[in-house]
Amino acid sequence: MTTKLVRHGRRHIKKGNVVQEISICPEDIQYSREKAIEMGRINNSITKGEGNIAGFLGEIVVSNLLTSVGIKNKIHNTYNYDIVCNDITIDVKTKRTKMKPRDYYECSIAKTSTHQKCTHYVFTRILNDFSKAWILGWMEHAEYFKKARFLKKGDKDGDNNFIVKADCYNVSIEDLNNISELGTKTVDTLNQVVYTDGVVVVNKHINSRNGVALNTRKINMPPIQPLYLTGKCYWAAVVEPNSTFEPAWQVDLCLDADSKALVEGAGLNVRNKEDERGEFVTLKRKVQGKNGPRQAPTVVDSQNNPWDKKLIGNGSVVTVKALPFEWNYAGKAGKSADLAAVQVVELIEYGDDKDFEVVEGGYVNDAASQMADLESDDIPFGN
């Protein structure tokens, strides 16, 4: 395929690069904050350490995109590279931005980083509020420095009027290779996947001279098969979410042999803490989803009447409806299940469960004994 070159400022720019726009979930932001605190300031950092959060987010969105299309990779966070993918090593270069990147914006590698030993560079932009990311493209290490132009600290870039903060080598976004061509396996240009009643909504963001244009297409998919499981529950937080860690509605459900087989067949984790729960599965629905706040799980009684907000105590028997799904996070993958609904079959109200059984004929403290006498006395009314 012949690439058309157009004149822009002082250099030729290649047309047709595809930029991936990705919505960043709160979990990734929190993880990146924690990693940034753990790492501290990086030596020779142009942003004096303030870009660490964005840097980790850049690595995560690149790793997740590769994983989502079946390309195995792992985040390593070495000085020379960030991600290992097949037989290539990738250094992810990230800048923060207050707007969508334009075709004629440039990617930079600081002069102090030129000796890093990686085979490929991938460039990303992160919105200042961390809500969105753009994967701009990639280039091989050797090719990059052949095509780059050198800018000194304090220079004014005539194409965008930016003041250069440090000696660096710059390449235009349009000179980058499509992320879809990275490695030996083609990466589909899919961005955000949203499952809704058996329909997958796929957002594809395509670069243009006027910015990033959005195309949306729908693919019919088989509906998700829910799991229906019945058993005793513990630590149910379905009326109000559990806020001990990340807020979520959740329940620990005890498993018999049949339920255990269903759970394991769905690839979910069966747990055992050697307590009264025996073998159980923890089912959750996070309060905050990727696209904003989520609805609480539906809760009904045994006759499908709406729940009256009573707290559900340990040992209550419930039937749950759970929706299995696959997840990809920071280069790792697994299966979980969304807690969609709960039916209370037998209720033990919260607070009814006692630590001990009543012992007939045992010691009763004086205050309790006197109260029992008052309650049992037949007190007559006077004349």
What's the number of domains? 2
The H-and-E topology, N to C, reads as: EEEHHEEEEEEHEEEEEEEHEEEEEEEH
What is the radius of gyration?
Answer: 29 Å
DSSP helical segment count: 5
Please, what is the average pLDDT? 75
* Low-pLDDT sequence parts: 1-16, 42-50, 184-223, 371-383
**Main sheet makeup:** 7 strands, mixed
- Beta-strand percentage? 35-45%
Q: Which class do the helix and strand fractions yield?
A: alpha+beta
Q: How do the strands line up in the largest sheet?
A: 17-18-16-15-22-23-21
Q: How many strands appear in the DSSP assignment?
A: 23
The outline comes out as elongated
Share of residues in helices: 10-25%
Quote the distance from N terminus to C terminus: 112 Å
Write a structural description.
- The protein is 15% helix and 39% strand.
- It has 5 helices and 23 strands.
- It has helices at residues 26-39, 52-68, 141-147, 257-265, 366-376; strands spanning 5-8, 11-14, 20-23, 73-75, 83-85, 88-97, 106-110, 120-127, 132-140, 149-151, 168-172, 192-196, 199-208, 211-220, 227-242, 248-254, 271-272, 279-286, 288-289, 292-293, 298-300, 317-329, 332-346.
- It has a 7-stranded mixed sheet. Strands 3-9-8-6-5-4 form a 6-stranded mixed sheet.
- β17 and β18 form a beta hairpin.
- α1 (26-39) crosses α2.
- The longest helix has 17 residues, at 52-68.
- The radius of gyration is 29 Å and the shape is elongated.
- It starts with a strand and ends in a 7-residue tail after the last helix.
